[in-house]
């Protein structure tokens, strides 16, 4: 909190100017026609602050058009505070906590966190890994009743009726993570995902579960660690990176969010992936991570039928 000293956390006009510098480093771009050469600022007290006009299409716009902030009644600097808080909290931040910290209603806090999560979600991307790169793949299970938690860990192919959701994560060693909610962890389900998301010439490392023995030969090299005989590291061969990621994810989801509905799980995964991918070790401090999240706001003006129901 002590770092929220920048003016754009305190003043809506400063926040707007800051967002302009992030979204338009080379000057305003018209969201209606893509024009950037014949744009001028609309001055005068009768107009909204930060309004621009485009002579190519005669359209008007501000920097928030087409973003999660469009038409929001929440001041932009309060949005920035929320983005910052979610970006610097390793285990996430519940809507309840945000409600207290920002002094907004619970509905508003809920609405904001879901939209920020959407901004953090990466869009389309090419495969990870490549020649000389190690990619770890593993799965974990989220939710479900306490008494079933350990059962689910072992019964990997069978999740039915336990209320547990399967999550597959792929981590490039010293690089980024990609997580997704999967219906089950059979070879049939996982194989096309690994094939689409990992370069063929990568070195794949997994545990010794059967599905990976089927999938492994699709890649240049595949090694496994055999957890069942207490083997965890054999030189480069380990899944400690992805398991370390799972421990942050699980502590966050069970400790901060308590319950994550199946429908929203992918958004929480996006949030945890985002913080990991823009982590300190890769050169992102809290403010740089916040700027990165603010860059993700375009084209994410979604509405959710939840407690907030588009009221904020
Ligand atoms: Zn235009």
What does this structure look like?
Strand 2 (52-54) and strand 3 form a beta hairpin. The two termini are 24 Å apart. Helices cover 36% and strands 13% of the residues. With 312 residues, it is of the alpha/beta class. The radius of gyration is 22 Å and the shape is elongated. A five-stranded mixed beta sheet has the order 6-5-4-7-8, sandwiched between helices. Helix 1 crosses helix 2 (76-88) and helix 2 (76-88) crosses helix 10 (286-295). It has two domains: 7-24 and 63-120; 134-277, Nucleotidyltransferase, domain 5, CATH 3.30.420. It contains ten helices and eight strands. Zinc ion binds at residues 30, 32-33, 35, 54, 56-57, 59.
Notable features of this structure?
5-stranded mixed beta sheet; 3-stranded antiparallel beta sheet; 36% helix; 312 residues; 2 domains; 10 helices; alpha/beta; 13% strand; Nucleotidyltransferase, domain 5; 8 strands; single chain; disordered C terminus; binds zinc ion
Residue share in helix: 25-40%
Helix run count: 10
Strand order of the largest sheet: 6-5-4-7-8
What's the level 1 CATH class of the largest domain?
Alpha Beta
Task: Please provide the ordered H/E string of secondary-structure elements.
Answer: HEEEHHHEHEEHEHEHHH
Bound molecules: zinc ion
Give the end-to-end Cα distance, rounded to a whole number of Å: 24 Å
CATH architecture of the largest domain: 2-Layer Sandwich
Low-confidence stretches: 147-161, 301-312
Radius of gyration (CA) equals: 22 Å
Give the number of DSSP strands.
Answer: 8
Average of per-residue pLDDT values? 86
CATH topology of the largest domain: Nucleotidyltransferase, domain 5
